Each structure stands twice: as C-alpha cells, then as structure tokens.
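Chain A, query sequence.
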Amino acid sequence: MIIRFDKVTKRFGQVVALENVSFEIKQGEFVFITGRSGAGKTTVIKLILAEFQPTEGEVWVGDYCLNRVKKKEVLALRRQIGVVFQDFRLLTNRTLKENILLALRVAGYRQPDWPEKLAQVLKLVGLEGREEFFPAQLSGGERQRACLARALIVEPKILLADEPTGNLDPETSWQLMDLLTKINKKGTTVVMATHNFDIVNSLRQRVIKLEAGQLVFDKKRGKYE
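Chain A, predicted structure.
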C-alpha cells in the first residue's frame, strides 16, 4: 500500500500542525519521521490512521483517499495497519494473551485461527510463556514487545510506530529496533516517528524531517540532521 501526502496542511484552530507537506512512501519502505517535539510527527501518524482529515491537500493510503473516506472504509483500512504507541495502551485488567487476541476479534478473524497466530507472534517478539501475565507483571520492554505483537498479529501491510522507544532504556530500544528491521525485511512498510538521533543515524534508512510543520528534507539513507 502506497502512502501519499499531496500538499497537506492541517490546522487546529490557529495552530498549524502541518503546512503544505508532500511525500510518498512505497510498500516495503522503512521511513523515519523526525523532528523536535511539536514538529508534526504525530499529526502525520494520525492522518495516516484517518483519526482526522487534512485541512487542505489530500492523504492517500492505498486506494483510500482519506479526505472523503467512509466510516466502513476507515475500519477496513485500519485492519491493514498496525500501530505501536509510546505509552503501550495495553488494557491493565486483561492478560497479555487477551490484549493481543483483542486485535484479532476487532479485525474479524475466525476464532479457530487464533491459537496458531498467537503462538507465531509471541515467538516472533520473544514473549513465549508470558501470555497469562498482566501488563503490570511485565517490564517496560516486554510491554512494548506486547504492543508490537498486538499490532503484528493481524498481519498488517503498514506498521506505524509513534515514538516507540521513548520510554525504553537504550538496550531495550535496540532490541525493539532489531524486531522492526526484521519485520520490514519481510515486506511490511514501517513508518516510525522519533527524535532518537542515535537510532536514526545508525540504521541509515529514509528520513523525512519536519520542522514547525514543514518538510525540510527527505533523504534515502538519511541521518538526523
């Protein structure tokens, strides 16, 4: 699925979050969206998820123009997108297993397929044997991997990560990045909003930098400048 921003501006009242931003992300790319806090990174993520519409310009994800997408189409689109949040957003009164399987329930997967898919994704993120644990019983790194497992179990074409290393120590951050790199190599598009310059400079993937809502550079094998 191609992601395309065509001269996108997003205003919240008098605040301009994005201004005349254009770029295209092809299926299978790994892209960092960088910039300081308030630069517009999270706005890009939320526009891709159709949480709101642009004030001007067009946002396309695959065949969906998100300026005029219907509610039913938004649900269909989100089934193809996984999201990893900085604050995990796990249900504290549900086990790890229940949190992950909730994504399958929402996406409408047949229940007979659930055990196999759960086992596969737990193995991928290294959480075998933790499925009956509650979030409070997991470390920060384990909770982030649980969030990643929940995003991946629906086999998304696009994985969005909004500051996923923001609450992690450096070692755990690199473990998460290793997982994201492996997932990308299997064909999943990864779009990660971050201001972690060590990670960006080391991995040398495509970098789209925002500054005060404007796109200031877009480079393949870029660095955090």
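The chain has seven helices and ten strands. Residues 96 and 131 are 5 Å apart (CA to CA).
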